[in-house]
Amino acid sequence: xxxxxxxxxxxxxxxxxGNYIAGEWRPAKSGATFENRNPANRNDLIGRFAASGADDxxxxxxxxxxxxxxxxxxxxxxxxxxLHKAANILESRxxxxxxxxxxxxxxxxxxxxxxxxxxxxxxxxYAGEAQQPSGEHYPSMGQNTLLYTVxxxxxxxxxxxxxxxxxxIPAWKIAPxxxxxxxxxxxxxxxxxxxxxxxxxALADAGLPAxxxxxxxxxxxxxxxPLVEDARIVAISFTGSNETxxxxxxxxxxxxxxxxxxxxxxxxxxxxxxxxxDHALQQVLAGAMMSTGxxxxxxxxxxxxxxxxxxxxxxxxxxxxxxxxxDPLQADTQIGPLIDEASADRVAGEVEAARNAGTRLVAGxxxxxxQGRDKGAFVAPTLFADVDSSSRLGQEELFGPVLGVIPxxxxxxxxxxxxxxxxxxxxxxxxxxxxxxLAFVQSIQAGVVHVNSETAGAEPQVPFGGMKGSSSYSxxxxxxxxEFFTQVKTVYIDPPPAA
Length: 499
Ligand code: ADP
Fold this sequence. Notes:
Elements: E1 16-17, E2 19-21, E3 24-26, E4 33-38, E5 41-50, H1 54-71, H2 76-92, H3 94-105, H4 109-129, E6 137-138, E7 146-153, E8 156-160, H5 168-179, E9 183-187, H6 193-205, E10 213-215, H7 220-228, E11 235-239, H8 242-255, E12 258-262, E13 267-271, H9 277-289, E14 299-305, H10 306-321, H11 341-356, E15 360-363, E16 382-385, H12 392-395, E17 402-408, H13 410-418, E18 423-424, E19 426-430, H14 434-443, E20 448-451, E21 467-468, H15 480-485, E22 486-493
Parallel strand pairs: 1-5, 8-9, 8-11, 9-10, 11-12, 13-14, 13-19, 14-17, 16-17, 19-20
Antiparallel strand pairs: 2-3, 4-5, 6-7, 7-22, 15-16, 18-21
Helix pairs in contact: 1-7, 2-4, 2-6, 3-4, 3-6, 4-5, 9-10
Bound molecules: adenosine-5'-diphosphate.
């Protein structure tokens, strides 16, 4: 049977977790479950989760549609208080939930706890945003006309999230959806259902009314279509692969739903000859390898001035070889596993293909199976030198701990190479030259631009999103979230004619 979530699992006991629909934790109607295992150790069974079907989706959408009628009229101040309370609850659990995240997703404990803390910060930020003005007052041609706009909620929304930030990304979509009066059907990645449960639990424990937030776990092949094709779902916020994003474009265009996509990246870090090399090395290493390279904002191309390229590549190779790769629950581990076996095999295959194509391997280069790492999805952090920008390694997102160095002659060529991919999410430049920094900011095709810091990182109070194939021209977080999760009503109010 499904139990309400508990936060301290008895040692050895494997729990079964339900969906959260209309304010209740429930098993899938079919009773089916699926297993969730630790990517660092496949013998570690984390739990069993509801393998939902179309009838569970129907129940979740019906609950979200019903709850919308009162949630849309609930004072934003009341919504803000609920988000504040959920933030406090999640904060009180940050160590446990961070540990769950690491066990389920595989990033290091420091990153797991850090990401959970970020989800807390996001909930707090949107508690504040809910209390900001939601419209504007305008002058009118009419002498006595009160003319203003007000932003209203959209309705029941679908939030579809990936596994790589299994609590922060759901938080940064769900918090604004709720803050601005929408209801939610939340479909997390199949590989990270426990983090989804933990987030929903904090919001449920804060006293969110039944039906306002509904969680359905399971495989996209069973539940995605009934969710995204349902006319009651008026908007979809999605982060994931370009392939799935493309399918959602078609579905939502056909039925006229609002859509927000956050997709892939092939993010460049440009290192100019005048850069502080030590700082650039440290930042490029972090950008490429933290979270095992599984961030959409990860650095996957180091575009380095040719005068520096050999020295930079050699030093970077030394640092990459020195990274401690292993069980992310161990405090001294720097790099955990990939999310699952299939990903590890896929990334190792890409590395093999690049080697076979003649690209020079400097560090890493395949699966790691010694020191107990045969039980998990481990791939060695990998560096290639003298990468051809037009090759697969130079163009495609590998989503793993793989970095290629591309030598260039100066800033103009660096920017041309940086812009030569279909993506445009984030980009970095390392230089001491202010003029070059400004030229880079002006010409780089990326939605998030850094000078002298790594490509990864997104603070909740500013817009986040990409250009070109990385996004859908909308932005998430900061004030941009209000634009996506609301619509404008323009109101003319005139006094009745004098009797
Ligand atoms: P990733 O490579 O990050 O797993 P996916 O696009 O496969 O990228 O998955 C991101 C999210 O989208 C997950 O929650 C996944 O279950 C969901 N998803 C997968 N296929 C579809 C689909 N056809 N429609 C809607 N959501 C989907």
